[in-house]
Amino acid sequence: MSEQNTEVDLQNFIKVIGLNNAAPGRYSVLLALQLLGGALSGVQNPAKIIREIEELEAGKPGQLKPPIQNRHPPLKGLWHKHYLQDGVSSLAMNVQKGLARFGIPFFEQKIREAEEAGEERFLTPEDVPALVDDVVSGNRQRLAEAQAITGEWLVFAKHDGQNYYLCVTTHDSSTHDQLRKQIDEVCCIEFPFLSKLLAEA
Question: What's the rounded Cα separation, in Å, for the pair 187 and 34?
């Protein structure tokens, strides 16, 4: 049986996904390797992250939350922009956020209609598809219109009017110490201005 070739050309991968076109010379090898790892493992579509970079570069607001500067160590001084992670957990996080923010307008409308008619009504099986659609798609659309869709983080630095894209991470702050160590060991060597930026944050 022949051995399968598992060698991957990182530079070719960067070219194929459009990272170099999106931010030429302003992305770290750490980010490139994270995107490659996510793609190879099937847990992340790098196109979603590239789209967020392109929107940041174009100054477009997009549908997700706007960029936020981190105010707490260990990522203080850096910025993050949300991106949608593949999988059910990202959908569930935004469904929960939409429910908390907007409720279920379809259900509330049904209650108002019953009250106005002076009747006691129950939802029917025929109402269920519309109810589910409002909870999932309706609230997602409302979050998009409010630029409030949440996701995981694309971490970047601002320097001389440009964005430098460093890495991706999750909301889980327990991973931020480890990520900062990687930024110090990799990104600060690639982008020397980062050491001073982080020291002064």
Answer: 13
Q: Is the pLDDT of residue 127 over 60?
A: yes
* Annotated domain spans of the chain: 10-85+151-200, 88-145
Percent of the chain predicted with pLDDT > 90: 50
d(CA 106, CA 94): 18
